[in-house]
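[SOLVED] Need 3D model of a two-part complex

Original post:
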Amino acid sequence: MARTHLISQVGPDLEGQEVGLAGWVYRYRDLGSVIFIVLRDATGIIQAVVRSEEVDPNSWEAAKKADVEASVKLAGVVRLDPRAPGGVEIRVTRASLVGESPDFPIKKDTGVEFRLDKRHLDIRSRRMWAALKIRAEFIAGLREWFDSNGFVSVEAPTFVSAAVEGGATLFELNYFGRKAYLTQSSQFYLEAAIFTFEKVYTIQPSFRAEKSRTRRHLTEFWHAEAEMAWHDLDAMMDVAEALVDHAVQRVYENRKEELEILGRKFEPPQRPYPRISYDEAIDIAQSKGVQIEWGDDMSTEAERAVSLEFDRPVFVYRYPKQAKAFYHAPDPARPEVVLCADLLAPEGIGEIIGGGQRIHSYDELVARIREEGLRVEDYEWYLDLRRYGSVPHAGFGLGVERTVRWIAGIPHIRDAVAFPRTPTRLTP
RNA sequence: GGCGGGGUAGCUCAGCUAGGUAGAGCGCCCGGCUGUUAACCGGGCGGUCGUGGGUUCGAGUCCCACCCCCGCCGCCA
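Solution:
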């Protein structure tokens, strides 16, 4: 029995024609001498009708055993019928069972935790299918933009010997008897690579050993990072905006069906994205009744208040120095703030990008490391980048799952990735 | 790390305030059904009530300790 078509190719135009399909049983309804099998493949779903008097005994027996998520091959004639979901179905002429599926664990009335325990099976669901296709499209859009705008992709190591940001929590591991860590950002490696390629990017996981139990946090998340020589803060925001816009547009153009399945009514935001200062953001938050003082880092509540003021992503730039990591370049005109910017997604989603201009002077960088109480010797190779041909540069990191969560309207970040890692989840 | 919620059948939950023979829906198993839409109809199986201790004639229910899970905040992408 040959597979002649993918399900998405079976439409009204094929009425009366015999097709061979292969896939998995999405729904199964046995009425005695007629069986309805809703078949799923990578491309879509379609109803198949098996009638006892229309198929040979072997096919009938196969259809009887085609439980939910069994793999099957079906041959049949395409028919239009208003009673079929989508209006098109196939009248089965032959059926064979490829792999049985006795008592598939995921049924109706399953809770969030149970489905996460069975995530290796739950990714077969329409909901996860749609979310993961949107994610893949978004990542392809990021890569497409970088590749066509002069960026070279550079991969950084996952095993590292020291922190990028002092204070942030690292996963420690034993590296042949030495302490090593899982990377929390590829930034320092990308900074090294700008001296080779000027504009570089990477899309790879970062790890944070923070017990953050929220809808915005994973312990392992995919991090799209870019670093650009000869760029200042404004140029960095230009890059980030163009990148996000491109990838978002691509998802919007190519993943309409998937957004529909998720019930997401999404319109790509208009450019330009507003750019406001930290000072203005604090004013907005305070005017909305948020308890926050100049000098505090933006709280989740403050970010939400600010992002809800705009119908598109908004950059917040020039935070107080004490709220940001040591490598951020101070504003020469106002040394108490640094040349950084975060991009807040709309609808209260919050931060999806963090970045800014880096300190490129050796002396300044050493002074800031000492000021933060960090050990200069931990940053020896990083300091070399300021010893040899240092240039002004800037970069940023984008949280892939956070951005996908916004685009697809996914309530919890764990559903923006196939196999999420959270403080309590290591399986599957 | 702080605050809040929760752990009872394979799954989703009720029962706890006022201690008295452990329940429902779904699933599963068996049977029926020629147009179902996570079908429907009939029957059946199924639980050391998170763990340990205490009070009591009697504890899922009250008390103590512990473990685990979920959400929010902090931290960040």
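Edit: The CA atoms of residues 18 and 77 of chain A lie 4 Å apart.
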